[in-house]
Amino acid sequence: MIVWLNGTHGAGKTTTSALVQQLLPDSRVFDAEKVGETLMDITPGLPETDNFQHWPPWRPLVVETARHVLDYTGGILVIPMTVLVEQYWREISAGLARHAIPIRHFVLHADQDTLRSRIAGDTVVGPDSPFRLAHLQPYAEAARGWLHAEAEVVDTTHLTPAQAALRIAAAVKD
Q: Which pTM was predicted?
């Protein structure tokens, strides 16, 4: 099974995923961003883009990597990854479905003011990350459109990452 943690940049996916992994026996965290980083390391570089998810190989490589890891280890993969383009989510979820891999898709949601505050206070990535701030509006549009309809929404506005992880783990265990 895959537990996909979606949501905008700065929503707490990485922190929450590590906590979810601790709560779910036989689970591992797979950071699909590393697939994008591998594509970014190709030389000469792939066509210019502002987001590696726009490269057509990224989506099937995420599916195949997840499939092969699950074939090897079994259990659960927790994937913290923002996907805001509906077509990309459809490609990934359809690819996993072709391999009969069930997905629990969660969106970590917080209101815009909370997200801005979290981004400003981030000591790891750094405050006021232009990349993260630039994705707040696309997230809001996806949330109003397809994203919240396609996932289990966990409103983290007033939750700690540990509380969010407990809710997700409990939902997965049900």
A: 0.94
Residues 6+ apart with CB under 8 A from 155: 109, 110
Cβ atoms within 10 Å of 113's Cβ, excluding its own: 9
Of 145, 86, 149, 144, whose CA–CA distance to 112 is shortest? Answer: 144
Selection from 63, 58, 62, 59 nearest residue 99 by Cα: 63
Q: For the beta carbon of residue 49, count every other beta carbon within 10 angstroms.
A: 13
pLDDT tens readout for residues 134-151: 889 999 999 999 999 999
CA 168 to chain centre: 14
For 141, residues 6+ apart whose C-beta sits below 8 A from its C-beta are 84
